[in-house]
């Protein structure tokens, strides 16, 4: 089976380099144009079920895809972004100044990065494991699409291919990109990560 991972489109907070986490920020105009391009990319893919994080930016991304694929979107709470606790709403630069010991370890030592109120990585991993388990169980004979978030998709892909957690930062993909996890019945591979070819016309 193939798991198509769609990261949501751009938001105002992405543009301002703010931690979004579970704060419910919608797509901005750029994001809406991005997901229209992403939907055309998804039109070529073979899947008949589409799941989404409940957050608005992911739902809007899923809705754009669902429209061209003629699918209903199905909410899946496990696809939520990590809760960044006291960092949410802060610019990355502000978090670096206010919590230097935590910001430095966000990507390098995520198991020990726990500012006040932040969801622990172990909890995010548990959510990601449930997604993978459902794919290898209930969905083992079909492909599915999911609309989700940057940090969560990094965790999901890292977990699937057993990449060391201190390399988590290498797994971050840009907005409105496609990644693909493939299950062969025994193990996961990552043939596609952060495919942005559909955005090239916009970039140009």
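^ Assign residues to that structure.
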């Amino acid at each position: 089976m193939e798991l198509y991972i769609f990261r949501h489109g751009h938001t105002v907070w992405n543009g301002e380099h703010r931690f979004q986490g579970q704060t419910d920020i919608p797509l901005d105009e750029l994001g809406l144009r991005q997901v229209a391009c992403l939907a055309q990319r998804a039109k070529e893919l073979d899947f008949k079920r589409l799941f989404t994080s409940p957050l608005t930016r992911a739902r809007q991304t899923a809705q754009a895809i669902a429209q061209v694929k003629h699918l209903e979107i199905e909410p899946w709470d496990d696809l939520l972004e990590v809760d960044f606790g006291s960092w949410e709403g802060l610019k990355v630069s502000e978090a670096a100044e206010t919590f230097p010991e935590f910001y430095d370890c966000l990507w390098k030592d995520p198991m020990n990065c726990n500012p006040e109120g932040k969801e622990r990585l172990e909890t995010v991993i548990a959510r990601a494991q449930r997604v993978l388990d459902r794919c290898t169980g209930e969905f083992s004979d079909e492909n599915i699409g999911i609309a989700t978030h940057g940090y969560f998709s990094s965790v999901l892909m890292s977990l699937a291919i057993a990449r060391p957690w201190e390399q988590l930062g290498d797994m971050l993909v840009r907005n409105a990109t496609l990644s693909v996890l493939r299950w062969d019945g025994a193990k996961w591979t990552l043939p596609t990560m952060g495919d942005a070819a559909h955005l090239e016309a916009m970039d140009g």
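The mean pLDDT is 94.
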